[in-house]
Amino acid sequence: MLDQTYIFAALAGYVGRPDATGALGVFRRPAAPGGEWQNVFPDKDTHYVLVHPTNPDVVLAGTIDGVYRSTDRGTTWSRAGFPAESRQIWSFMVDARDPNRIYAGGSPISVFLSEDSGATWKELPNPGIADRLTAPFASRVMRLAQQPNKPDTIFAALEFGGLMTSHDGGQSWVDRADPLVELSKLPHLSSKIVSETTAEGMLDGHALTVMPTDPDAVVVALRMGLFETRDGGETWRDLEAKTFSPTTYGRDVRTAPSDPNTVYAALSVAAASHDGGLYRSTDAGKTWRRFDKVQVHGTIMSIGLHRDDPNQVYIGARYNGEVFGTQDGGQTWSELSIPGDVKDIYCVTCG
């Protein structure tokens, strides 16, 4: 399996360090030992990379200028038929019913749909989500997830905006931020850094996952930790990450494609920090234990899981191209960092 796998990393600049230098775009390396990183797409700041689940020759990059696409496993790239100029893309989701249908989440808040594996795209109706605060950047769709037993129901994590939901395949959306704002009135869930409201921390959504074994359960990774809703975002339960992790800034959460009971969460100190850990639950989020055996030197931004090989797990930390991975189910870990002067990692994936 290793000799058929590539690891990808998406790199871009950071709003807090506008003068930072270094390579950006998409980097790729073979997963097999001895592989070396190549900057296969150096042209655009890139926030997200998707390896197509049924055709790994197709790789999509979400950039500051729409979607770029490769049909040779990331060797060459071209801009997809994308309808919006200079629209930032932060997330992708493949429709479980039809792998040719792929959704993309944008900034400002917007959703796009491709029906030909990412070759061409159309913009879906404006979600109509009102701005909840004033921030240094436009709010963005950070993660999209589909409810397995109701595939027209889609959840979207928003930075800043918390959560929005659709029950018609993305044609219309409902703002679900009010309950998160209400929770922010609790002193330990109040946080403001870049805006005028202490609800900022609970509106700072980064990722979400739907539990396949319990499709009503949706877990969202926010600045203030991990939170679960079982009623589509009307009410929330704090999973109290502080009880199992010394760091609680939730940046990524993913269900293992090969095991619906296994969930991974990346928890760090803050958006700009130098510590964090990868935690795993093997009982669909009921209990958690630290999984990695490494010391990162930046916020863990992304978790990369192989679709068919549960032994492969990768994490990308924000600074210095830091990538770590295990290829034996967590028994041993290797540093796989990108060499040289590079910008910040936003996403790692494999396939």
In what order do the strands lie side by side in the largest sheet? 3-2-1-28
| Rg, alpha carbons | 18 Å
Give the structural class.
mainly beta
Strand content: 35-45%
Overall mean pLDDT stands at 96
Order of helices and strands: EEEEEEEEEEEEEEEHHEEEEEEEEEEEEE
Shape, principal axes of CA atoms: globular
**End-to-end CA span:** 10 Å
Helix share bin: under 10%
* Low-confidence runs: none
What's the β-strand tally? Answer: 28
Largest sheet: 4 strands, antiparallel
* Helix count, DSSP H or I runs of 4 or more residues: 2
Report on the architecture of this protein.
The chain has 351 residues and is mostly beta strands. It has helices at 178-183, 200-203; strands at residues 6-12, 25-30, 38-41, 46-51, 59-63, 66-70, 78-79, 88-94, 102-107, 110-114, 122-123, 140-147, 150-159, 162-166, 174-175, 205-210, 218-222, 225-229, 237-238, 249-255, 263-268, 276-281, 289-290, 300-305, 313-317, 323-326, 334-335, 344-350. A four-stranded antiparallel sheet has the order 3-2-1-28, with no helix packed on it. The N and C termini lie close together (10 Å).
Give a brief rundown of this model.
The chain is an all-beta fold and about 350 residues long.
SSE layout and pairing:
Elements: E1 6-12, E2 25-30, E3 38-41, E4 46-51, E5 59-63, E6 66-70, E7 78-79, E8 88-94, E9 102-107, E10 110-114, E11 122-123, E12 140-147, E13 150-159, E14 162-166, E15 174-175, H1 178-183, H2 200-203, E16 205-210, E17 218-222, E18 225-229, E19 237-238, E20 249-255, E21 263-268, E22 276-281, E23 289-290, E24 300-305, E25 313-317, E26 323-326, E27 334-335, E28 344-350
Antiparallel strand pairs: 1-2, 1-28, 2-3, 4-5, 5-6, 6-7, 8-9, 9-10, 10-11, 12-13, 13-14, 14-15, 16-17, 17-18, 18-19, 20-21, 21-22, 22-23, 24-25, 25-26, 26-27
